[in-house]
Amino acid sequence: ERANMALVFDRYRAKLTMLPKEKGWITENLYMYQGFWHQSSRRISVETLMALQDTFKAHPTDIYLATLPKSGTTWLKALVFALVNRNQYTYNCLSTHPLLVSNPHNCLPFIETEIFRNTPTYVNGHSPRLFATHIPYTSLPRSILDSGCRLVYLCRNPKDVLVSMFHFANKLRDKSRGLMTIAEAFDLFSKGVMPTGPYWDHVKGYHKAENVFFLTYEDLKKDTVNNVKRLAKFVGHPFTEEEEADGAVQGIIRLCSFESLREVNKHGYLRDDIPNDAFFREGKVGDWTNHLTDEMSRILDEITEEKFYGLDISC
Ligand code: A3P
């Protein structure tokens, strides 16, 4: 895998010098490519994006889960994996379900990380193939857009994304860089600078697109049952009446709950540098009130109001 990464990165790194640069949250820098900020030299990076744009082949039956980082990607991955595979892995056979032994990121990969694998993962043998991505809509590899496959977008309140990203970055960034302050995180976020940001442009890109099932973290929290049922239908695995009577919906919701996943992932590492527990912090709506000043909140509300003016986006 390391050799593959090196090849991908070498090929595209030369182009980096031409791109506008900003201070990164986790990595040293972020680079502006096709209107969005991207990390470099990590699996989810601008070099990977360029490689995917050149090579990625979608299948018409694929399902893509698109999100900005810290919008609930891990939760959505768990839900869709559990829904689509519920005949193979029954939600009530608790000892053997992959989500009870493995991080959701291992069960359902990002296309950005898949490119580095020498050997095909389980997804190649399955239809539909399930993938996640943080790539902005307008930068998606052409074949995803052309193949007419299903896309799910999960969006989350910008202030909660900012706060979640702030904590995540402080867990993952190189110790030599020291910790970020919330003021620094706020400055970057409000300028649109975060991995695959600007936040507002990322959300708008998917909101405008036609073939996208658009969901918010807040709605998923508030009415989990109905939204999970809608999601099941969209991914082509609607619940039967018998399943519903049997408690299948609740079973899957429990399996993918914050408490359950946090418990499974309290030890170990996703990869060398990312502890499994980094993806499970509070799992709440509105935690921003504990971190942002009134002034920060007001400024972000103003930006959001202006950027989302006339759009029906409520998160
Ligand atoms: P907080 O930092 O606000 O707690 P992502 O998966 O896109 O990286 O997003 C991580 C955020 O989703 C974190 O938010 C995390 O706690 C929350 N999260 C993870 N698993 C969840 C689950 N099963 N249900 C609800 N929220 C979850």
UniProtKB/TrEMBL annotation:
Keyword Transferase in annotation: yes
Keyword Glycoprotein listed: no
Entry's EC annotation: 2.8.2.-
Keyword tags: Transferase
GO molecular function: sulfotransferase activity
InterPro entries (alphabetical): P-loop_NTPase, Sulfotransferase_dom
Domain Sulfotransferase residues, every copy: 60-311
Pfam families: Sulfotransfer_1 (PF00685)
PANTHER family, per database record: SULFOTRANSFERASE SULT (PTHR11783)
Family statement: Belongs to the sulfotransferase 1 family.
Identification of the protein by name: Sulfotransferase
